[in-house]
Design brief:
Blueprint (H helix, E strand, L loop, with lengths): L8 E2 L7 H22 L1 H4 L8 H11 L6 E4 L2 H11 L5 E5 L4 H9 L3 E5 L1 E2 L2 E2 L1 H11 L3 E4 L13 H13 L3 E5 L23 E5 L11 E4 L2 H14 L5 H12 L2 H27 L13 E6 L7 H10 L2 E2 L12 H5 L3 E6 L5 H16 L3
Parallel strand pairs: 1-12, 3-4, 3-7, 7-8, 8-9
Antiparallel strand pairs: 2-10, 5-6, 9-10, 11-13
Helix pairs in contact: 1-9, 3-9, 4-5, 4-8, 10-13
Length: 372
C-alpha cells in the first residue's frame, strides 16, 4: 500500500479471490477453445435446453441419478428461481430463519409466503419445523446444509435426514442448496447427500468453485417433476449458455476441477482461520459456530440498535470497513426477534488476505466501542 492510500476492506460482497480467478485464466482460455473446436455449432446453436448433455451426464454420475432428472442452467440462482416459478403461486415455503437473501427476494416475486424456522448449530430446530409443517402445509422447504449462507452452520447428518423424512412424510419438496459442499477448508470433507426417487431435490452452482462470470448451476428433481419443470424452463430461456457448460464438463473430466478445488481449499484456509481468530478475540459469542468453509459468517452486534445502525454503518465506512445490515437475509417472521438482539451483519472472507481480515474485524470492534 502506498503512503497516501488509506487502508480499507469491504466485507459485503461474497466474491472469489482475484488470485484464484487469475490462476484459472490459462485453463479457462484453453478449455473454451477446446470445446468450441470440438463441439462447434452444437454449442453455438439453440439446443440442449435442459443443459449440455455431457455435463448433465457427469453431474448425474456424481450424484448417482438418471441424467433426465437434471436441469443445468445459468447459475444456481436461475435454477432456484425456475423451481420457485414451478410452484403454485402463493405457496407456503419453509426456509431457515436467515438464508440466502436473493432466494427470499425472488420467491416473493411469485407471491410465495416464506416461513422461517430456527437454526441451531446442528441444523434446523426440528420441533419448530414439525410445528410449521403442521400449521402451514408448505409446498417446499429450501435449506443450505453445508456452510450455510449466512451463518456458516454445517448440518449434522442426523438433522438433515430428519428434515428429509419429515418432508417425505408430508409430501413437501425438500430442496438442499449444496453450493458450498466442496468448499470446506478445515481439512475435513463433507459427506454426500443420497438422492432417491422422491428426492431430496439438490441444487448447486459453479460460481464459487469455478467463477461467477461463467455462471452455471444445476438442479436435480424427482422424475415425476421433470416434465413440469421443463415446461417452465422452455418458456423462460430456451437453452442455457452451452459453451460454458461444455467448458465445465471438460474441466471436470480433465481432473482440473478437482485440482482447482484443492487449490481453493488451501488458499482460503488461512483466511478462514484469521476470521475465526479475529471473531474469538473481538466478538466472542457473537457468531453461532466456528467457520469451517463456505463464503460467509454472521455477526450479531448487541450494542447497535435499529435506531443507530445507519450511523454505525457510516462510522465503520469512515474507518475503512464496509458492512451493511443483513435484514434482507432474515425470514419475515424472524425480523422483529432478530432486530431486538442487535445489528445483524453478514461478512465474507475468501477474497481477503488474513492480515486485512484481522485488521477489519479489530476496526469494527473499535468503531462499536464509540457506540456503547
Ligand atoms: C446459497 C447460495 N445459492 C446460490 C448462489 C448463487 O449462485 P449463482 O451465482 O450460481 O447464481 C449463492 C451465491 O452467493 C449462494 O450463496
Amino acid at each position: 500500500m502506498g503512503k497516501n492510500e488509506t487502508r480499507a476492506i469491504n466485507f459485503l460482497r461474497g466474491v472469489p479471490s482475484e488470485e484464484a480467478l487469475s490462476h484459472l485464466i490459462p485453463m479457462v482460455a484453453e478449455g473454451y477453445e477446446k470445446v468450441i473446436r470440438q463441439y462447434g455449432t452444437q454449442v453455438l446453436q439453440y439446443g440442449h435446453f435442459t443443459g449440455f448433455k455431457p455435463l448433465r451426464e457427469l453431474i448425474a454420475n456424481l450424484h448417482h441419478v438418471d441424467p433426465e432428472r437434471i436441469v443445468a442452467g445459468n447459475g444456481g440462482l436461475e435454477v432456484i428461481s425456475l423451481f420457485f416459478k414451478s410452484l403454485p403461486l402463493q405457496s407456503n415455503v419453509i426456509v431457515e430463519e436467515v438464508t440466502y437473501d436473493r432466494v427470499l427476494l425472488d420467491a416473493k416475486r411469485y407471491g410465495h409466503n416464506m416461513i422461517g424456522v430456527k437454526l441451531t448449530p446442528e441444523g434446523v430446530d426440528l420441533d419448530q419445523f414439525r410445528d410449521v409443517v403442521k400449521k402451514t402445509e408448505p409446498a417446499a422447504f429450501y435449506g443450505i446444509p453445508f456452510h450455510q449462507n449466512p451463518t456458516g452452520i454445517n448440518y449434522t447428518d442426523e438433522n438433515r435426514k430428519a428434515v428429509e423424512s419429515i418432508c417425505q412424510e408430508h409430501n413437501i419438496l425438500c430442496v438442499w442448496d449444496v453450493c458450498y459442499q466442496d468448499l470446506r477448508y478445515d481439512g475435513k470433507a463433507n459427506g454426500a447427500i443420497d438422492v432417491s426417487e422422491w428426492g431430496p431435490i439438490l441444487t448447486s452452482s459453479f460460481t464459487k468453485t469455478i467463477s461467477p462470470g461463467t455462471k452455471c448451476g444445476y438442479i436435480i428433481v424427482p422424475k415425476d417433476y421433470v416434465e413440469h419443470l421443463i415446461g417452465i424452463v422452455a418458456n423462460t430461456r430456451i437453452n442455457p449458455n452451452l459453451p460454458t457448460q461444455a467448458f465445465i464438463a471438460d474441466f471436470i473430466q480433465s481432473g482440473w476441477y478437482d485440482d482447482y478445488l484443492g487449490y481453493l481449499r488451501e488458499l482460503y484456509r488461512p483466511r478462514m482461520d484469521a476470521l475465526n481468530t479475529a471473531f474469538n478475540t473481538h466478538f466472542p459469542g457473537a457468531s453461532p459456530v466456528e467457520i469451517s468453509g463456505g463464503f460467509f459468517a454472521p455477526l450479531t452486534l448487541g450494542d447497535i440498535s435499529v435506531d443507530n445502525e445507519s450511523a454505525f454503518v457510516k462510522s465503520a465506512k469512515d474507518a475503512g470497513v464496509g458492512i451493511a445490515p443483513a435484514w434482507n437475509a432474515v425470514a419475515p417472521n424472524f425480523k422483529e426477534e432478530l432486530q431486538g438482539k442487535g445489528l445483524f451483519i453478514r461478512l465474507t472472507f475468501p477474497a481477503f488476505q488474513p492480515n486485512d481480515i484481522e485488521w477489519g474485524i479489530s476496526k469494527l470492534k473499535e468503531t462499536i466501542e464509540l457506540f456503547s
